[in-house]
Amino acid sequence: MEPHRYKINRNAAGQRRDCAAIRELSVNASIKSGRDVIIRTENWQAAIKFYQSALGLKAKHHSPGMVGFETGSFCLYVEQGPPHGPVFDFYVPDVQAAKAQLLAAGCVLIEEDPARPRCYLRDPFGITFNIAAG
Fold first, then answer.
1. What is the DSSP-derived secondary structure letter of residue 118?
2. Does 23 score more than 90 pLDDT?
3. What's the whole-model pTM score?
4. Torsion sign across C-alpha atoms 58, 60, 61, 62
5. Cβ contacts of residue 61 below 8 Å, gap of 6+?
6. Which domains, ranges and CATH numbers included, belong to the chain?
């Protein structure tokens, strides 16, 4: 058998880190990833039925126009509305400062609604994400 070609992630005491511990690591000192992924569809009821019946996911969140499913690794939220592709969550200490920095780096503002709170940006490589205070 060939040895593994990847490095096993270990903490300062040399103990192996599990996925939950790795998930807590920040991408940047001021940006932390969340567990939420949001998709939006105009065929909302069919999407909910699909995730419940085909994948066997259990709804953990219900609100008008949105249902959330716990998958184990992440929470999948299905929102009613025009599609925009999957959206990943990132938490930042200052949304406006992060938004300005990301726009300057080449991101495009897709949607913003401080009441939700929502600030969707698309990066230069096509990934859409939400930045929120946290």
1. E
2. no
3. 0.71
4. positive
5. 67, 68, 75, 77
6. 34-83 (3.30.720.120), 90-134 (no CATH)
